[in-house]
Amino acid sequence: MGHIRKPIYKGKPMDITSMAIIPLLLGSLGLFGLYRLLQRLRTRAYLQDAVVVITGATSGLGKECAKVFHAAGSRLVLCGRDKERLQDVVRELASMAKKTNKTHKPHTVTFDLSDTEAVASAVGEILKCVGHVDILINNAGISYRGTILDTEVDVDRMVMETNYFGPVALTKALLPSMIKKRSGHIVVVSSVQGRISIPFRSAYAASKHATQAFFDCLRAEVQQYEIEVTVVCPGYIQTNLSLNAVTANGSRYGVMDKNTAEGRTPEDVAKVVLKAVGEKKKEVLIAGLMPTLAVYLRTLIPKLFFTLMAARAKKERKIKDS
Ligand SMILES: NC(=O)C1=CN([C@@H]2O[C@H](COP(=O)(O)OP(=O)(O)OC[C@H]3O[C@@H](n4cnc5c(N)ncnc54)[C@H](OP(=O)(O)O)[C@@H]3O)[C@@H](O)[C@H]2O)C=CC1
Ligand SMILES: CCCCCCCCCCCCCCCC(=O)OCC(=O)COP(=O)(O)O
């Protein structure tokens, strides 16, 4: 029998294990590349021409989501409270450099999410205008700053109406048409504060926890109709959220917080949202190391988490009083 010569590496013949590892590694890399390529093509096909409704499209994350979904070729319905500002966004999208994808001129629908009747009639308007909705992005929201002791219950209600009952009403109104079609995708922008509560954010954290719970239930209930649910939990983003936050007496906070100013850019977060939706992710946490650790700490060592939060409350109160 002929003698098979082993390949030489660094002057020594390679053993059988190393000889097998190289093709295995190359094969895995190739397979991974192919998987990523297929995933990108699937995402592109999923978003091209899809009817996507985005709430809170006038600013911040909503506006950036409008840009990335528009560039992906989706047919947008932009929602907000201010018609003029929505038209500004439409003009901005029209002026964007054209990509290879075919793009569509967006529609706009104006309504206040905290008004349940307005939400129902907005859904009528949306369905009349575009026929059906493929993807609903519940993005609009408002934040809050205050102590529980000082905060009027009406303020708790207002935050809850906007962040929780608004998305719930909009989703419920659109759901029957999605079920009939046996397809659809509901996205909700929650927050890291949908997973952990931090002091002086009671109304906001409560509204985001409720949102997280509702949409987790929804995911389980609508899977049988092939409807997807994606919950997005971002950490701080550089938007006007803190400027627009309400305080204990309902007035505008009007301060750009350091954490917000130093957060991720809304452009960056919108890209993560687009990818998560395209890949039909069930949930995505978009946060740095500390908030991510805090989420795990809350579950794994709650006692330590509560101690840290109490210390945080004490420190913040001291800063405020000085
Ligand atoms: N910025 C951050 O650090 C983080 C933000 N988030 C979440 O991201 C989402 C987007 O917020 P962001 O872009 O940061 O903040 P912005 O303040 O820039 O945007 C909020 C959007 O929500 C709309 N909105 C507020 N109240 C209502 C209402 N009653 N009815 C209809 N629309 C309303 C606003 O519209 P209008 O122009 O009419 O006021 C605006 O378009 C929110 O759900 C927020 O909780 C989550 C984690 C971190
Ligand atoms: C073993 C080490 C454990 C380390 C744990 C450290 C705990 C540190 C606490 C970190 C708290 C992070 C809070 C993040 C909050 C956040 O990202 O919120 C996003 C928002 O929705 C912002 O809204 P806001 O109005 O509050 O600005």
Notes on the structure:
The chain is of the alpha/beta class. It has 2 domains: 51-287, Rossmann fold; 290-322, no CATH class. It is built from 10 helices and 11 strands. The protein has helices at residues 16-47, 60-71, 83-94, 116-130, 153-181, 202-222, 258-261, 266-278, 289-300, 302-321; strands at residues 8-9, 12-13, 51-54, 75-80, 107-110, 135-138, 144-145, 184-189, 227-234, 246-247, 283-286. The strands form 3 sheets. The protein has a 7-stranded parallel β-sheet with strand order 5-4-3-6-8-9-11, with helices on both faces. Helix 3 links the parallel strand 4 and strand 5. It is globular and about 90 Å long. The model has no long low-confidence stretch (mean pLDDT 95). The chain binds NADPH dihydro-nicotinamide-adenine-dinucleotide phosphate (NDP) and the ligand CCCCCCCCCCCCCCCC(=O)OCC(=O)COP(=O)(O)O. The site of NADPH dihydro-nicotinamide-adenine-dinucleotide phosphate has 30 residues, from helix 2.
